[in-house]
Amino acid sequence: MIKFCGVNFKNPMVIASSPLTSKIEWLIEADRHGAAAASTKLAFIKQPFYGKLRMHTYRRNSSIICYDRRKDMDESLKLIDEGKKRTDLILFANITNDDYDLDGWAYLAKAHENAGADLIEANMVCPNVGLSTKNIAGEESLSGSEQGGAVTGQNPERIEAITRTLKESVDIPVVVKLTPNVDDIGVTARAAERGGADAVCLAGAQTSLPLVDIYDEGRPKYYLLNGVSHGSLGGPSTKLMCFSHVANIAKKTNIPIVGGGGLESAEDCIMMMMWGAHLVTVCTAAMWYGWEVIQRQVRGMEDYLKKMGYGSYYDFIGKSLQYLRSSSKLEALDGWPVVDVDKCNGCTICAKPAHCDAIEMIDKKAVVYPDKCLGCGICVSLCPTGALTMHVAK
Ligand SMILES: Cc1cc2nc3c(=O)[nH]c(=O)nc-3n(C[C@H](O)[C@H](O)[C@H](O)COP(=O)(O)O)c2cc1C
Q1: Which one of 13, 17, 112, 119 would you pick to mutate in the ligand 1 pocket, going by the greatest count of ligand atoms within 8 A of its CB?
Q2: Is 5 in the pocket of ligand 1 (CB under 6 A)?
């Protein structure tokens, strides 16, 4: 159990707004596999265009989402209503609107509250509303209906104004889902906090472009879209960047954080919480590997609590922040890899890194010269047999 913005969650797992939360059947699956909550698919009062799910996918790496089928308000309200009746999930209503139409934001939020949503998730993250246009043709090219999603999330003044409007319009908590496509997400998170946000939510969502076919005029390697936009990155390649964003926000604000981006295992979720997240979101991992991923993550987090003797999730939230300091304040410790000669199979992989002359092969075994070691640790990561471990000099 974890209390977040005054709402009791049975565990920290939230299914991120996506195709996974676009229909009642999937909400039922999310519930069945142990998630505490879900954020329903992005809703507009009336969506500006009707897309279809189109994404570039790279195994074990990432997905770039250029296009998706969003929801008009009526569809979204029906989903929230059904979701509350047929599941035990806590539901975030993921909504966006033209950022100068504050009445529209208020209307959308109130309607979702009345339909039964437990929290509002103001979407200031999606690049497929207007940021993809802004990235190509500049701010001045944006039409009214494109002033939402990540375009809003880049503008602290608008974030604050919209958040304030939402807070005045509904009684349920307001969570602002921020774009990482900014200089400093701590600044935009503070704007949300000033507007009265109860929490912020963070995802990968860095705008990205796909691989192209170098033998076919540079055509993107995916054929179900005519053209390509600066789409939204999801999946494991965003995880480390999201740790950084969450820690940045945790240091600069006093509101709780929902952290997501590339979380594939229970350990990933726990690390995200150690960097300051109170709840975690998962999308890509379940899209690739199925709902069982969610079950494994939830059970893994519960097992971890017991194994470590923690009484609650709060016992480890933000634990890693104590190690965070400016580069100039870091202290380099001396060390080098040591070789377990029984495990070394003489493959020479550890001796290859171009910047390193600290490892030599003698009689088909790796030998390390500590005084030459730069401490990068790459050899340890490369070793296929686990024969190398980093030794820290006392
Ligand atoms: C196909 C797809 C559609 C998405 N649609 C939405 C959306 O409607 N609203 C939203 O806030 N985020 C949306 N996202 C972003 C996810 O909610 C999530 O924050 C992001 O993918 C990072 O998590 P992950 O690395 O676990 O996928 C979408 C992601 C994917 C892959």
Answers
A1: 17
A2: no
Q: Which CATH class is domain 332-392?
A: alpha beta
Topology classification of domain 2-323: TIM Barrel (3.20.20)
Q: What is the pLDDT of residues 140-156, one digit of tens each?
A: 899 888 888 999 999 99
C-alpha–C-alpha distance, residues 131 and 151, integer Å: 5
Q: Which residue type, as a one-letter code, is found at position 313? A: Y
pLDDT at 144: 80
What are the domain boundaries of the chain?
A: 2-323, 332-392
Q: Active site residue: 5, 126, 373, 379, which one? A: 126
Asked whether 47 lines ligand 1 (CB < 6 A), one says: no
Q: Is 191 in the pocket of ligand 1 (CB under 6 A)?
A: no
Residue 126 bears catalytic tag: yes
| 186 in Cβ contact with 213 (< 8 Å) | no
Whether 394 has a pLDDT exceeding 80, the answer reads no
| CB within 8 Å of 139: residues ≥ 6 apart | none
Ligand 1 atom at minimum distance from 125 CA: 11
Global confidence as pTM: 0.96
